[in-house]
Amino acid sequence: MKHVGDEGAAATSLALRLRRQAEEQLRITGEDMRHMSASQIRRLVYELQLTQLELQLQNEELQRAQADLEKAHSRYQYLYDYAPVGYLTVGPDGVILEANLTAAIMLHTEREQLVRTILTRLVATDARDALYLHLQHVASEADPQSFDICIPQASEPPLWLRLETVAERGARGVVTQYRMVMSDITARKQAEATQQQLMQQLLEVQENERRHLARELHDEAMQSLTALQMNLDLLGDEHPTLLSPLTRSMGLVDDLVEQIRTLSLELRPLILDELGLGPALEWYCQRQVPKLGLQAHYTCDPALPRPNATVETTYFRIVQEAVTNVAKHARTSEIWINLHRKAATLYLTIRDQGVGFDLQNYRRRAAQGGGVGLRGMMERMQVIGGRLDIRSTPGRGTEIHVQVTLPPREI
Predict the structure, then answer these.
(1) Residue 112, Cβ neighbours under 10 Å: how many?
(2) Alpha carbon distance 276, 312 (integer Å)
(3) How many CA atoms lie within 13 Å of 192's alpha carbon, on the beta-carbon side?
(4) 88-92, long-range: CB within 8 Å, 24+ apart, which pairs?
(5) Looking at beta carbons, which pairs linking 371-378 to residues 24 or more positions away fall under 8 Å?
(6) Which pLDDT value is given to residue 1?
(7) Cα–Cα distance for residue pair 166/296, rounded to 1 Å
(8) Which one, of 121, 59, 129, 46, lies nearest residue 90 by Cα?
(9) Contact call for residues 149 and 128 (beta carbons, < 8 A)
(10) Which residues partner with 351 through β-bridges?
(11) What φ, ψ does residue 152 adopt, rounded to 5°?
C-alpha cells in the first residue's frame, strides 16, 4: 500500500514537470516581443489571463468531482462492508483476495486474517473436494452457481453458508477471479433437520401402527374366521338340508379370509421383519405384483447384508409405490427391479418401458400439491439421508434410481 506522503510528492513532481512543459510551449523570446505591437501584447495578456481563469475553474470542478467521488466511494465502502450478506473475491488458485466485514463476522475471523487464506481450509475436510468441484463448475458456466458449505466451529453448531459464485474472465476467457455472495442458512438447515426428525418419527409411528394392525388381522381376525369355517362345516354335517346356503356362506368366508390376508400383507409383510429386504422384495414381486397385472423381473445381490429397519422399510415402500404407479399410469405389463450394493452404498433401480411422462409438468404439478406418490418417495428418502432420481421421457418409459450410504456397521 502507498503512503500519503509518497502520493503527495509524486503529485508535486508531476505539477512541476507540467509547468516546465507549459513554459516551454508558451515561451516568448525578446525578439518576438520587439515585433509585437502594443495591441498585440495586450491581446496576448488577455488570452493568458483568460486561460488562467479557465484553468482555475477546471481545477475547482475537478476538486468538486474528486470530493464527490470520495463521498461515493465512502458510501460504497460502507454498503460493501455492512451488507446483509458476505462478499468474497477469490483468486483462481482458491486464495481469498478481498472480503467485506460481514463475511469476516460470519466466519468469526478478522478480515486481515481472512484475506490471503485458502478458501478450502475454512470448510469441513470432507467438503473440500466438493467445493473444488464447485469452482470448476463455475469456471465452465457463465451464470452464477449455488453451493452449500458447512463450516465447522469449535464450541458451536456448524455454520451453513449458501454460496452464489460467478467467474470473472480476462483475455481469452481465462478465469481471473471468483466473486462470491455468502448467505447464512444455518437456521434453515436446522429447521430442515428438525423437520426431518419429525418426519422420521411420523413414519416410524405409521409403520408401527401398520405392524400392529397387520398382526391383529393375522392373529385375531384370521383365527375368528377359521373358527367360523369350522363351525359352518359342523353345521353342514348336522343339517344336510342347509348344505347349499352353508356352502355359499363358506365361499364368502373364504373370500373374506383372502381379503384380510392381502390387507395384512399390504399393511406390513411379516417377511420384511423376519427375513429382510431382499427376500421381502422377491416375495412381493412373485406374489403381489402379478395381482396388479404386471410381470416383475427382480434381481438382487446374493448374500446382501441387511441394512437397518428404517432403510428396509423405505426401500420396500418405494417399490410398492412405484409398482402401483406403473400399474395405474404406465400402460405396460412389465417392470424391472434391481437391488444391489456397491462399497458402502445400497442401490435400488426400478424401470419400466411404458408411456413415461414429462418431468417438467410433473414438477409444476408437485409444486401445486400434485404428484403425491412420487413426492412421498422423495420425502422418505430425505428422512434416511438418501437420494432419489427420476428419469422419464414421454413414450420411452421411466426409471427411478435410489441410493443411500450405509453406516460402517451395516456394510
Answers:
(1) 9
(2) 7
(3) 10
(4) 88/119, 88/178, 88/179, 88/180, 88/182, 89/177, 89/178, 89/179, 89/180, 90/119, 90/135, 90/177, 90/178, 90/180, 91/177, 91/178, 92/175, 92/176, 92/177, 92/178
(5) 373/321, 373/324, 373/325, 374/321, 374/325, 376/321, 377/317, 377/318, 377/321, 377/322
(6) 40
(7) 47
(8) 121
(9) no
(10) 336, 399
(11) -70, 145
**What would the grid cell of residue 233 be?**
362345516
Q: Are 330 and 398 in contact (CB under 8 A)?
A: yes
Residue pointed to by grid coordinates 520587439:
34
| pTM for the full predicted model | 0.59
Q: Scanning the structure block, which residue is given the C-alpha cell 442401490? A: 347
Per-residue pLDDT of 226-247, as tens digits, reads: 888 888 888 888 888 777 888 8
Q: What's the rounded Cα separation, in Å, for the pair 81 and 242? A: 94
Burial per residue of 171-183, b for 16 or more beta-carbon CB atoms within 10 angstroms, e otherwise: eeeeeebbbbbbb
- pLDDT of 68-98, one tens digit each? 777 777 777 778 888 899 999 999 999 999 9
Taking only the tens place, the pLDDT of each residue in 369-407 is: 666 778 888 888 988 889 999 999 899 999 999 999 988
Q: Which three cell numbers stand for residue 178?
A: 471468483
pLDDT tens by residue, 33-80: 567 777 877 887 788 788 888 888 888 888 888 887 777 777 777 788
How far apart CA 206 and CA 212 sit, in angstroms, is 10
The answer to whether 178 and 90 are in contact (CB under 8 A) is: yes
What percent of the chain stands above pLDDT 70?
Answer: 90
Strand order in the sheet with 345-352: 295-300, 334-342, 345-352, 398-405, 387-392
Pairwise CA distance, residues 335 & 290, whole Å: 11
Query: Residue 395 carries which DSSP code?
Result: T
DSSP H helical ranges for 82-173 = 101-106, 111-114, 128-139
